[in-house]
Amino acid sequence: MTHTALTKAFLFTLLFLTSSIVHGAKQERPNIIIILVDDMGFSDIGCYGSEIETPNLDSLAANGVRFTKFYNSGRCCPTRASLMTGLQPHQVGIGHMTEPPNQPLEMDGPYQGFLNDQCLTIAQVLKSTGYHTLMTGKWHLGYADRANWPMQRGFERFYGGITGAFNYFKPGGDRVISEGNQEIQTPNNWYATDAFTDKGIEYISEARATNDNPFFLYLAFNSPHWPLNAKWEDYLKYRGKYKAGWQELSDRRFEKQKQLGLFDSSVKQAPLQAPRWETLTPEQHDRLDAIQAAYAGCIDNIDQNVGKLVTYLKKSGQLDNTLIFFLSDNGACQEGGILGRGDEAMVRNPPLETVDGVRQGLAWANASNTPFRLFKHFVHEGGACTPLIAHWPKGIPVKRNGSFARQHAYLPDFMATCIELSGAVYPDTLPKLVGKSLMPALKSPRKPVHTEALYWEHEGNAALRLGDYKLVREYEKPWELYDLSNDRTELINLAASKQQQTSALIRQWESWAKDTGVAFPERFNMYRYLREKQNNK
After folding, report:
1. What's the pLDDT tens digit per position in 102-133?
2. What's the rounded Cα separation, in Å, for the pair 121 and 115?
């Protein structure tokens, strides 16, 4: 059955099955907003330890729940694939990345580079129960075949970029902005983060004028992904604040994290993989301060726009029954060399219609992921564990406000959560969903979300988490084993001392990998091939 035929059959059946839910209880079902940011580290917002001004996100956290062990897929495309479908990225055709514009990957199956016919998106499922389905921002789930654009995968309205990275001020070339199915030219004084928020508010307002059915908004900012196109005024707020370097920044953030209650005194800060600040020249210090100020400015602007959206929801009487999730697609991004790229001149006069520009670089990215090891691409905690804030006044008990959800959870859980809240029925003709509803963690600090194993793989970087034990490796390196109950930052490798347990977990991961279609890098040079073929997202 083709994707179109499958979708039509599913929608017809689901509309019949859930018509009583839609008509009988639509007022009780919440609006759902998922705000996804791009390449932001664990410690980069105030309520997770940052010095960056994020009062609006901090307010959502103070009146909602913060997760401390929420996992992504380590990279942009697989994260989006898993979030949108409730499945592993390999199951839906994005085991590595999507094809760049006009550059087919020439792969198939789990690595074809676009969503396959064996999945449905959250938008398709929610739309079948009467939800308005709206999206603004970065899609990055398939470019070449328009059958895999947002409007063809369940969204009624779409405004944003189909590809990966694009310019915040003036997208151009083959990385432009589309509305619906049409590529458009952006006006003067356009800025991506502002535009995506404004268009999202516009779409919500127009949907409310149609009927009072609930809405689903997927607001996928491209910020703070490179190029770090900070607004000049946002950049100036932070210029000069990072001249003490990454170690000092990481130390301050870790102390704040402990004060906030994110970590107790037993947690140790992972050492930074960065040169000592004092070995660099004053000129390098100044340039690096400018880079981190640009990064901070981008995050500050995200928060401003979250505030704009929340203000609209409050004034329109929708905030109390809107479930807002805020998360990042992976840890901070080391792409750009150890010391990053760009300087103040590039912030002041950014190249337009290109993805050239300022990049944070490995050393600052490592500090952004405080207190964890590694960064984007990897599935150690620094790459795969990022913030998740949930805010829903009508649905989250008041006693949970400002508290932490210390249960471990991951991206496929969003589909299961949306199904529970909408009353939808997922077809048993498709692969079984791997996620579980997040509602237990929102309601109680003790109810687990997962008791079964969770699995990851990206570019040969791989992991399995079962309870408090995490099996993890870097590509072409030996497996490591950590007990996260007393080693949250993966510093004490137990693989040698617990050989039997390590071997059993390796066999378990390999069985999952075989069933899921993961290409074993020990047998294939797939990742080298893909890296050579695709230099940028």
Report:
1. 777 778 899 999 999 999 999 999 999 999 99
2. 10
Token pair for 80:
């989006």
Helices (H), 92-142: 122-127
Q: What is the pLDDT of residues 335-378, one digit of tens each?
A: 999 999 999 999 999 999 999 999 999 999 999 999 999 999 99
Catalytic annotation present for 76: yes
- Beta bridge mates, 480: 472
Mean pLDDT of the 169-173 span? 96
- Give me the phi and psi of 159, to 5 degrees please: -145, 120
Whether 484 and 76 have beta carbons less than 8 Å apart is answered as no
- Annotated active-site residue 140? The verdict is yes
Cα separation of 515 and 486, whole Å?
Answer: 32
CA pair distance 401, 389, nearest whole angstrom: 11
Instruction: Please give the Cα distance from 119 to 245 (Å, whole number).
Output: 45
Q: Among candidates 535, 172, 225, which has minimal Cα distance to 358? A: 225
Cα–Cα distance for residue pair 330/310, rounded to 1 Å: 24
Active-site residue, selected from the candidate residues 76, 77, 298, 333: 76
Chain center to CA of 424:
24
Q: Which two tokens stand for residue 233?
A: 């005024």
Judged by DSSP in three states, 458 sits in: strand
Beta bridge pairs of residue 215: 132
Q: ω into residue 445 within 30 of 0, thus cis?
A: no
CA angle 322, 221, 214 (to 5 degrees): 25
Which is the catalytic residue, given 140, 391, 408, 450?
Answer: 140
Structural domains of the chain, ranges and CATH numbers in brackets: 3-533 (3.40.720.10)
The strand pair at 388-391 and 31-37 is best described as unpaired
Contact 322, 310 (CB under 8 A): no
- Quick one: CA torsion of 51, 359, 190, 353, rounded to 10 degrees? 180
